[in-house]
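Give me C-alpha cells for this 59-residue protein.
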Amino acid sequence: MIVSRNPVPSLHDFQILMCRVDQFLNDDAKKRPRYYAARGGSPLEDDVMIALVYLYPAL
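Here you go.
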C-alpha cells in the first residue's frame, strides 16, 4: 500500500510519479521479460514499490 503524507497532492504531480514508475518498469521488463511474464498480483505490487523507492528514495 502506498500512503501519502501530503493531504492534497496535485493530480499533475501524481501523474508524473506514475509515468516515471511506468517507464521504469517497462524499461526493466524489456531487459527481463521472463521475470515479468511470471509476475502478477501482489508480486507485481512489490515490483512497483521497489521502483518507487528506487526513483524516489526520500518517500
